[in-house]
């Protein structure tokens, strides 16, 4: 046996056949095993104030499908990344299950997936709605206005590069140092315009070989236009 009341903070009193029988948390649900004779009536009252539900009489059926259907409750959450949004269904159905979903994105597109992803065509306000249907044909709809905006451009990075050379066993080695480091996972290192990737940890050592020559270096944040000054060394 269960009874529902719109959930408020605090506790409620449960009256069975007009007598105060239980006090329980007011979370919108209460379960009761009569263990014999079925009570004639139930009533729920908020504690501390004079606010009670109607008295209800339990209905006994052999098949739960004979009971009136409780409509589902529609709701959803979102994870937004610029124009792309991942929607997650958080709907519920107290006396069955939700079997169908219909999303409308207010841009001419719909989806029938439970948890769809969608890319909006432009920035702006969109009224996104979700209609759910339970296993007995009950429906509920939840709508929400969403502001869709492009991700802001990344903060500019002013890279400063210094290069020094050392001799080791006849080889010239260039030791590169740059600041700031750690602004990205990797960094592009250009040695005479030939690019290689490295961890953006602020330093890199490059073997220039034996003999002499000229080498130019610069570093750039991967896949951006943010680059350091160019450094030319003679060795």
What's the quick description here?
This protein has strands at residues 2-3, 11-16, 19-25, 30-31, 42-46, 76-81, 84-89, 98-104, 110-111, 117-119, 124-134, 139-148, 160-168, 171-179, 186-191, 194-199, 203-209, 214-221, 231-234. The chain is an all-beta fold.
Explained architecture:
Residues 68-141 form the PKD domain. This is PKD domain-containing protein. It comes from Christiangramia crocea. The structure is a single chain. The protein has 235 residues and is mainly beta. It has 3 domains: 2-60, no CATH class; 76-148, Sandwich (Immunoglobulin-like), CATH 2.60.40; 160-234, Immunoglobulins (Immunoglobulin-like, Sandwich), CATH 2.60.40. 0% of the residues lie in helices and 49% in strands. It has strands at 2-3, 11-16, 19-25, 30-31, 42-46, 76-81, 84-89, 98-104, 110-111, 117-119, 124-134, 139-148, 160-168, 171-179, 186-191, 194-199, 203-209, 214-221, 231-234. It is elongated, with a radius of gyration of 33 Å. Residues 1-8 have low confidence and may be disordered.
Blueprint (SSEs and pairs):
Blueprint (H helix, E strand, L loop, with lengths): L1 E2 L7 E6 L2 E7 L4 E2 L10 E5 L29 E6 L2 E6 L8 E7 L5 E2 L5 E3 L4 E11 L4 E10 L11 E9 L2 E9 L6 E6 L2 E6 L3 E7 L4 E8 L9 E4 L1
């Amino acid at each position: 046996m269960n009874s529902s009341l719109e959930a408020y903070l605090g506790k409620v009193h449960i009256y069975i056949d007009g007598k105060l029988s239980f006090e329980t948390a007011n979370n919108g649900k209460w379960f009761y095993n009569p263990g014999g004779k079925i009570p004639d009536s139930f009533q729920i009252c908020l504690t501390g104030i004079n606010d009670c539900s109607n008295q209800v009489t339990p209905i006994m059926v052999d098949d739960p499908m004979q009971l009136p259907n409780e409509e589902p409750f529609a709701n959803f959450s979102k994870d937004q990344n610029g124009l792309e949004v991942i929607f997650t269904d958080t709907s519920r159905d107290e006396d069955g299950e939700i079997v169908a979903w219909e999303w409308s994105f207010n841009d001419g597109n719909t989806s029938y997936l439970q948890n769809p992803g969608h890319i909006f065509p432009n920035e702006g306000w969109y009224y996104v709605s979700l209609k759910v249907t339970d296993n007995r044909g009950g429906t509920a709809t939840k709508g929400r206005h969403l502001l869709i905006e492009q991700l802001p451009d990344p903060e500019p990075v002013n890279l400063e590069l210094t290069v020094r050379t050392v001799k080791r066993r006849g080889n010239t080695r260039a030791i590169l140092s740059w600041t700031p480091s750690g602004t990205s996972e990797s960094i592009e290192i250009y040695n005479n315009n030939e690019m290689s990737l490295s961890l953006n940890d602020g330093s890199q050592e490059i073997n220039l070989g034996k003999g002499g020559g000229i080498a130019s270096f610069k570093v750039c944040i991967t896949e951006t236009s943010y680059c350091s000054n160019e450094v030319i060394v003679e060795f």
